[in-house]
Amino acid sequence: MEIHLADAAKINKPLNTSEILENVGGGFELKVPVDAEFRIHQQAADVYSMSGSLKALAETACNRCGKLTPVVLEQHFKYVLRVEAEPDLSTEYQCSDEDCETLFLAESSLDSHEILREQILLAIPLRQLCNESCKGLCKKCGVNLNNKKCQCGEINENSPFAILKTLQQN
Ligand SMILES: [Zn+2]
Ligand SMILES: [Zn+2]
């Protein structure tokens, strides 16, 4: 969606959009369009503040067993938008808090797609499990331990044989 900043600030209500994002990266596939809301306020002649939020349903591989796992991505964002052909970094109008980002724009409109793409990447969790108790794959034979038991782990760490096994390996 193309956002015309001056117009968006005038209507004084949130802009809603639903957009399909492809190839978001980070090993994620989005299953449905991203739903987002943008709010624009004018602060000065060429300065706008923008806040908003997004929500998307994605799918990613479990970090332990590799099973495709659904994950809901949610993100809130804040920007200060400055329409300046040549960014002047020394002037006022910077973001006041650290979650906020200053964007310099060549013209007073922007594509919501670019913002959503950037924010989706920030929303992606570093670690995703299919289940908190996922047993993962056996490091030796590669069997998915959630579905099957393999012979590799027969001697567990606490058994008196474990120390013997360690000795044999060395
Ligand atoms: Zn798993
Ligand atoms: Zn095994």
**Helicity, in percent?**
10-25%
What molecules are bound to this protein?
zinc ion
The shape is elongated
Q: Topology as H/E string?
A: EHEEEEEEEHH
Cα-based radius of gyration, to the nearest Å: 24 Å
Amount of beta strand: 35-45%
Low-confidence segments: none
Largest sheet: 6 strands, mixed
Structural class: alpha+beta
Count of DSSP E strands? 8
Helical stretch tally: 3
Quaternary state, please? Answer: single chain
Tell me the span between the first and last alpha carbons: 62 Å
* Number of self-contained structural domains: 2
Mean pLDDT: 86
Brief descriptors of the model:
170 residues; alpha+beta; 2 domains; binds zinc ion
